[in-house]
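Reopening this ticket.

The earlier resolution said the output was attached, but the attachment link was broken on my side. Pasting everything inline this time so it's all in one place.
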Amino acid sequence: MFDLPLPIHPNAYPRGVPPHFPLGDTDPNHPFALTLSRRAPADLMSGRVPPLVLARFATLAEAMQGAIDHAEGIPPHAAPQLLAILDRDERLVLAGAASDHAVAWCHPVTSAAEARGVVTEASQLRGQAGRATAWGEPDLAAQLRHRADLLDARLVDPFWRAFAARALQDAA
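Inline output:
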């Protein structure tokens, strides 16, 4: 797991609206969708929180560049945004935290055993976040939930794991 030493702030945009996203398009024929997770209270209470599709791209490399372009539009000191690239079947291909003009990509798990460990750890962190909320520690709870979200971002679909890991190596 990688840790982001970034501050966790409340959503910087009114009603969860992201900054203007100039690149990419919404052509449903493009296989890769760059998405932003929604954290508005109404979305969370609905039971199903579909991600907001920012743009669609023909290749994973273009989607990764689109995520970087999106990060450049995030104001300094704004809360990190969890971006995810999904394929046309809505399987997770790659995810990362965008803030301060950069994207910190989460390295995908390499096996089912590692995925089970990640799920267990994320669940424990969310439990700790619930206890922190009950103890009147909302900042700590937000940090724990953010860490759990970053762990979940490593749960790339098994079909894409090797490909995503290779794409991160090539990008580095």
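Reporter confirms the inline version is readable. The two ends are 17 Å apart (CA to CA). The chain has two domains: 7-107+157-172, 109-155.
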